[in-house]
Amino acid sequence: MPSTLQRPIVLIGPMGAGKTSVGKRVAKALGRPFVDTDKLLVSRHGAIAALFETHGEPHFRELERAAVAETLASDDVAVVSLGGGAVLDESTRALLADAHVVLLTVTPEAVGPRISGSDRPLLHHDGLAAWQAIAEARAPIYASLADLTLDTSHRPLSHVVDDIVTWAGTEPA
């Protein structure tokens, strides 16, 4: 049954926190569409790693900002998962002002198996150490944007989803 959600729910957080998995389930529970901006970018522009390598991170962030703006401007209010670094762009952060922003966090111990063997361009050289440095550097930005923060390290995803659905239903429009 579709919800009466008036604003999109946007999931932010570090790589491997479960934004896509949780987002899909929240959207299903609310009867709303789900958009993963990373997947949208890949479908339009090719692999993220190749975009980074060929055009650099600034170009990727421009494409990402456009994808976020397009998604949030949609008439059909949705659940949106952002790439971990999307919030680095000030203009992208401004786009989140009218959304319900949910920060998903995860501990280094829990994220290790989730990111092992991934092709994430920012983790190519130092793996988990790079993840931890990136997550710590971005943490203040994530925290400043979040309306709700939930840790996905050891909780069943169904509980995280239930918390978001319940919270979104009680938030003012």
From TrEMBL:
Keyword terms of this UniProt record: Amino-acid biosynthesis, Aromatic amino acid biosynthesis, ATP-binding, Cytoplasm, Kinase, Magnesium, Metal-binding, Nucleotide-binding, Transferase
UniProt remark on cofactor binding: Binds 1 Mg(2+) ion per subunit.
Primary location group: cytoplasm
Residue positions binding Mg(2+): 20
Binding site for substrate: 38, 61, 84, 138
Reaction(s) the record says it catalyses: shikimate + ATP = 3-phosphoshikimate + ADP + H(+)
Domain of life from the UniProt record: Bacteria
Named cofactor requirement(s): Mg(2+)
Enzyme Commission code(s) on record: 2.7.1.71
Keyword Amino-acid biosynthesis listed: yes
Keyword 4Fe-4S: no
Subcellular location as annotated: Cytoplasm
Gene Ontology molecular functions: kinase activity
Pathway assigned to this chain's UniProt record: Metabolic intermediate biosynthesis; chorismate biosynthesis; chorismate from D-erythrose 4-phosphate and phosphoenolpyruvate: step 5/7
Residues involved in ATP binding: 16-21, 120, 155
Gene3D superfamilies hit by this protein: P-loop containing nucleotide triphosphate hydrolases
HAMAP family for the chain: Shikimate_kinase
Function recorded in the entry: Catalyzes the specific phosphorylation of the 3-hydroxyl group of shikimic acid using ATP as a cosubstrate.
Subunit and partners: Monomer.
Similarity comment: family membership: Belongs to the shikimate kinase family.
Protein name: Shikimate kinase
Natural source organism: Frondihabitans cladoniiphilus
